[in-house]
Design a protein that fits this description.
This protein has about 190 residues and is of the alpha+beta class. Helix content is about 70%, strand content about 15%.
Amino acid sequence: LRVGVAYGLLTAAWFVVASGYGVVFRSVSGAVFGSFGREGVVRFQPHPRPEGEKETAMVLSRRGARRGVVVILSSRYVGYSPASLVVALILGTPLAWRRRVFALCWGLVLVNLYVLLRVLIGLLIEFGTRESIRLYELSPFWHSMLDYANEVFCLSVTAMYVVGILIWMAVCFRRDELKRIIETVQSR
């Protein structure tokens, strides 16, 4: 019940924190991916004409090029949703507050690494397949691997929940506690 309430409140809070989260998402993504290899440049900026939930524009180009490719995405679905799930799971777990704060800190680190992985997969696909900005040639094998990674980690809502639950388990439970939980589930 506590997890559901926390997740509901965090989901509803999006309408209050959306603009601030979008700024942070674009700033961090730009700091991490702004220079993509020697030739690639990525700018994360607010989209001038948001399309529904998609309010962030990734502008991808080759260094020195006048034009680039614009990819529109939603900071809510790429970043905020997985983060709010992990936060809700941790806040709803009956732990001592000191342990909960520790879990929250590590959970946020891990979920944001997952968010950056989602952005990276998209960038690898775009820079490997778009003719006007192509930085490298993808072999059929690597093209299919990136497509698969995109399907699993970026487009699948289920993966967001699975990764969120795995992060929650990793930061909230000790090894012996996880072992007891697994044994209890298997004995039923």
